[in-house]
Amino acid sequence: MVYELVTAAIVASVPDVILNLAEYLYGSNHKAFIGVQHMGRTLGLTADTTHNITGRPTKRAQRTYLADLKKIGAAYCQLPNEVFSLLGAQHAMFNGHWLQKRSQLTKTGKTLGSIFQDQQERTGLLFWVAKRQKHVLAVLDSPHVAYADALAEDMVTVDAQPGTPKVESVTLTSPVVNFLADTYFGEDYTRRRKRHGREDALQKFGYSHSFEKLRPFFGRDAYNVFNFEAVFAQGVSPLDAVKPFVLDAAAAPTLAEFKHLHFNLAMLGNNHANDYGSRALSTTLTQFNQAGISTIGAGNDRLEARKIVELTYGNQQVALFNGYWYRNPAYNLFDFYASADHAGVNCLDTMMADDIRQYKQSHPGATVIVSAHWGTDYGVIKPAQRTTAERLVRAGADLIIGHGPHRLQPIEYVGAVPVLYSIGNGVFNNDGEFERRGVPPYAAVLRLDLAKRQLYWCPIYANNLKTFWQPDFVSAADFEKVAQFNQPRFAVTQLAGNVNALVLPF
């Protein structure tokens, strides 16, 4: 019984587990409280750290200090190996509930174990061995479990390079930067339709059809950015049995069409770039590079995935960051995020805020734009999106462009910073779920004009079953309806080609 309780307490700092363990070891919670206070005095801890045994709020505020965590960590390192090894526990069952560690490092052999004082794993201790000596990293109030893991992994991995990400500089000859969200010609969806005897645009017209009406928007002189939501691969994926949608793309026709569209930068920080594993992702990065299209948001290791693209127009600098929000299955099941020695995508919730802060310190006059792949399919804005947006704005982001939910989400502001939580799909050739979910069937393409310091939000039709997988800019009548989605607080205008747009100054 005591082994199960100790294991459960190590895996998840759940108050009910701690109370049951206290009852078993000491006979009562009060006696356990006295025992914990005695242990605190023995270790020389600050009195404020031991006001109760669960960490729940009480009349007397319980505080955790980094110096106290270091003392506790040192005490753990003195335990006999037989006992110390319990810190490597990753799973436990308690009262019929399956408990699991969020931290990935012990699962991948990077650390010996860990213990946290909160269920979110933001304050605690991580242990590893180097040169036959136990070492401990104390983490206090980490913004995210993935952030603590990233820092710890760089410390324990041989030859890890936690330093400053590469900045790829581009000098623009035109002030126009265009943004297109989720883009995929739909090879996987086409195979599914073929099995059911359904015809679609890719079968009937090939790769050029879907962009036909949007093509003039992406001029040769502009800098054109898009989110490529697939990977160049074929055959069986290791995720076929565990991930609902695994998206592969044919490299040659896809890249040929992207080149024809004058695309300059592919954003890969999303939930499909690693669908076929790290080798396929590395190949995809190489193929984009060979085609003359830069990439951002993924890399052969974490440092490469954190790359920044810096655009210069006249005396203006714009820095582009790209990443995918933290998802527990993507981290613990799909192995999606880049690490110190593993290819993957950049995580919004690990080093990005630090990278923005560091970049802003050295480039105080630059404009920082974050392209964030986040949210749930056809859903509303999630609290985690807002939390991440606030953290990135505090770090120095000047504009956040979101995508991932396959639908429009409202434009909001964090202070003076516009956050476009989702601009929906670009050319993404699924069937869509607009009618079934009761969601307006629109998306938006963006144009940033650096000469005017204005951002244009240009809505398009996104219901593929109505457009036969060929999105187009909305009519003047429909534009009035779509514009109300963001409330009547923005000016409206019309760009070349009768493209209706909301105007966001920033």
Automatic annotation (TrEMBL):
<dbReference type="InterPro" id="IPR052169">
    <property type="entry name" value="CW_Biosynth-Accessory"/>
</dbReference>
<feature type="domain" description="Capsule synthesis protein CapA">
    <location>
        <begin position="176"/>
        <end position="430"/>
    </location>
</feature>
<comment type="similarity">
    <text>Belongs to the CapA family.</text>
</comment>
<dbReference type="InterPro" id="IPR019079">
    <property type="entry name" value="Capsule_synth_CapA"/>
</dbReference>
<dbReference type="Pfam" id="PF09587">
    <property type="entry name" value="PGA_cap"/>
</dbReference>
<protein>
    <submittedName>
        <fullName>CapA family protein</fullName>
    </submittedName>
</protein>
<dbReference type="InterPro" id="IPR029052">
    <property type="entry name" value="Metallo-depent_PP-like"/>
</dbReference>
